[in-house]
Input
Amino acid sequence: MNPQLSIIVVVYRMSRQAMNTLYSLSAQYQRNVCETDYEVLVMENLSADSLNAHDIAALGSNFRYFPRQETSVSPVNAINEGFHEAKAPFIGLIVDGARIVTPRVVEYALAVARSSENPLLATPTFNLGPYLHYQNQNFCYTEETEKQLLSQANWKQNGYRLFDISNLGEANPRGLFQPFMESNCYFTSKNNFAAIGYADERFQLPGGGSLNLHMFRSIGMLEQCTHYWMMLGEGSFHQFHHGVTTAQEDGRDEKLLQFREQLESIWQGRFPALEREPLLIGSANSHAQPFLRYSTERGQIRFNRLHEKRRVFCQDDWQRSAFCYQRDSEDITKFDPR
Amino acid sequence: MSASTNKPKLSFVVVVYNMPRQAMNTLYSLSARHQRNIVESDYEIIVIENSSKNNLSPEKISALGNNFRYFLRQETSQSPVGAINFGLAQACADHICLMVDGARMLTPRVVEYALMAIRANPHSLTAVPGYSLGWQDQHHNIDAQYSEAEEIALLEACHWQQNGYRLFDIATISGANPNGFMNPLMECNCVIAAAQHFAAIGGANPDFQLPGGGSINLHMFRQLGLLPDSTPYFLMHGEGSFHQYHGGITTSQWHDLAEVLESHRKQLHSYWGGHFHSLRREPLLLGSTTSHAQRFLKFSSQKSKKRLGRLERHGQQPWPDTPHNSKHPLDY
Output
């Protein structure tokens, strides 16, 4: 029987981090699901620090490993090969293999796939350690520090402890109710990926540049994508590695500028975060509650600000106009065409 | 179209007695005019009225949509138990939403999310949290002098028919979940489960013959929540069922309220070996959070954090009522 969900994980030169990520996706760690429900496709661009096929196979019979010789510095081709190999009609994409997920991500992805016509489901992003990895002042946060942190938290026993040793990711610094620029672990139908032309091959900059932002917004703006969901109480946690934008390196600002220029040239000069009303799914245990509370506080601030300006709350829902979300709150009286 | 495609996916059973103004608001809130992103044929509303001097008008009900079915019953008991069981027997759908008290209005996406919960898992149990219209819980109305006239004015001023989420702006959290909806609920006045689950608990127990049914609603909610395969347990955090002021047994001003409640409690505990408890299962939140509902989510999150912290310090499990075939309730 074919799986209901295919999760594509792209890996390049991060064997330690990727093995944590893959363990977090295995049925040993994910709750209330079994191996036959989903498959994990590991697309690795080979390097001097590659994964071991036996270690991956030991994680479960639902893992499929694709070691690839790749000349491009972008993950575009690896992603597209993943789409080609995926057996399920619903797909999860983790472009950066250094992200550990919490234990009910797969369960909720399957629930959302069943519950609504054509959903996009995002997972919020967090950073392990006390601060964002590219702000790693004086290089005092190292792989060693992180290894210690992870082993003290004993995260393999209870993945929710990752919340206790992390900070908010830069993709969602203001919590669940503010628009997301991207998600580093998101799920949608294979049809939707096809509708946006899969991973756009123009994104050939290192790490793909802004490819992930582009794909996330493109899918969110599809007319056929009726429901935008957000996982509550779950997360994807970035581990320290020498990623293109997540490590502290000289020239980071110039690289980001280059990425933004490419993105804006494709989006007619303006690339906003996805302003759609999120439907929440999930529970919040004590580890995740502070994040929920923070999110409600920031959410209220946002609502109040937009209310004062007489602006719609969910601009992109309006522009897609297919659905009636918060369309008729008295707060939403004026459509701002920007 | 075949008969099976005409069959609704969800049957609402609404019990009404001597409250036509309030019940018409409730029924309007259930209609496809007020509920969003659904169509009439998705669901049916079964209105069971125990006859009084103040009956509903069948014409007005049918004007709300083709998916309303009205039954007027002659009932000698003061309990709604007979009406509930009659209503459950009329339900065509495989899933039922029970509303024991017809005075509770719903927000606009309850039907949509209920259908999603059923699709996510047909065995799921789904609760819509309760609120009371007005600035205080209605038990305390003796002091607050809250009257029906005041409530009518509040409802008119907020134009809830245009946007049902404004009900949050004129309401307080219900006494049934005073610590928010992420702590265990005592009961739920808008609960969705499989018809077979309602059958498995034997419908409403006819022994509950006290006025208003006594604690029948608490009893049924806990029974449903303890069924071994009623997973997962969803909670619509951004929706609500809003209680309107009426001469309800436990929700209005009675000087002997304490004694009435004590008689209810005694009966309930006798069925649960002296240990009736609110349903301690981990709720999975489902749905959007409008600006109107945000403050209640924040409140519930604060209260939940407090409870989970206390239980963790005492080494107690937070969700001991979770059915055994589910693996998830390990965490604080």
User: Anything to note?
Assistant: The interface with chain A takes residues 36-37, 116-117, 119-121, 159, 162-163, 165-166, 182, 232, 237-238, 282-292, 294-295, 297-298, 301-302, 304-305, 308-309, 312, 318, 326-328, 330-332 of chain B (CB under 8 Å). DSSP finds eleven helices and twelve strands in chain B. The first strand of chain B starts at residue 10 and ends at 17. Residues 294-313 of chain B form the longest helix (20 residues).
